[in-house]
Amino acid sequence: MTTDDDHPSPPFGRALCAMVTPFTGSGALDLDGAQRLAERLVAAGCDGLVLSGTTGESPTTTDAEKSALVAAVREAVGGRAALVAGVGTADTRHTVELARAAERAGADGLLVVAPYYSRPPQDALEAHFREVADACGLPLALYDIPGRTGTRIEPDTLVRLAGHPRIVAVKDCSYDLLGTQKVLARTGLAYYAGCDEQILALYALGATGYVSTVANVVPGLFRAVLDAFDAGGTREAACLQRRALALIEPVMAAGLPGTVTTKALLGALGLPSGPVRAPLRPADRETTEGLLKAYRELTAGAAQFQA
């Protein structure tokens, strides 16, 4: 099903943040901090939160921590935002276990990345996603990020998977604009831009919205991009997207993982974050100061974008 403006209906909202997982100074899960951060993000315009994704350090959190995080954030935001739980692993059986646990904990949907390291061929990849989708009652967003997994979810595979009633969306980090358009043209899958620099471009082509890392610190900015575009202000939307590059580049394209830079900036702003878990290492002082400078320049005179 699509909306009147040719964007597929948003199964998890359209303005989603790939939320960091806050830790205490000793490295333990900080559920109070997660609740406070989630409250702030929803109040600032996020209608969906992705928990335990790449930015949420899913490879280094335990199964119990993942479930506890979903339950705590659900308690904090209630029904004001959709919660999408990252459950993808390199093991189909483990992924199914996490999917069922996320459903019990109160998630609204699942983010399922292509299994990494083993690099399954497309028929095995398709079977993996179908097994997860058959194992519980939640809708799935498939996470296509071959730069991390080593395996692309090919457009033809996505077209076939779109026939499954619980496979409803894609988080697109493929950097394949042609392939994305082919799937948009042939399916009703809701596409979410997973790379912040592509949010407006994909939305203009018919994507549903975005899953943003930079939204952890400026949750209102990309929502304003979509709102301007929907109101017919394409020039304004383009200006806002270009303006966001001042923060997108140092957070996402400066040689450090987005989790590291985002947590450094959140911490500098006095917001819940805490350390990253090894093997990641914290940003140094110079990097943090540069991030803070970029944030202040971006948000100067724009209260709606400030943390």
UniProtKB/TrEMBL annotation:
Which Gene Ontology terms cover its molecular function?
4-hydroxy-tetrahydrodipicolinate synthase activity
Keywords in alphabetical order, please: Amino-acid biosynthesis, Cytoplasm, Diaminopimelate biosynthesis, Lyase, Lysine biosynthesis, Schiff base
Pathway-wise, it operates in: Amino-acid biosynthesis; L-lysine biosynthesis via DAP pathway; (S)-tetrahydrodipicolinate from L-aspartate: step 3/4
Q: Which Gene3D superfamilies does this one have? A: Aldolase class I (3.20.20.70)
Q: What's the Enzyme Commission number for this chain?
A: 4.3.3.7
UniProt lists the gene as dapA
Question: Family assignment?
Answer: Belongs to the DapA family.
Cleaved signal peptide residues:
none
What the entry lists under Pfam families is as follows: DHDPS
Statement: the UniProt record of this protein carries the keyword Cell cycle:
no
Q: How does it assemble?
A: Homotetramer; dimer of dimers.
List the protein's name: 4-hydroxy-tetrahydrodipicolinate synthase
Enumerate the InterPro entries for this protein: Aldolase_TIM, DapA, DapA-like, Schiff_base-form_aldolases_AS, Schiff_base-form_aldolases_CS
In its UniProt entry, the species of origin is given as Streptomyces parvulus
| Residues where pyruvate binds | 55, 211
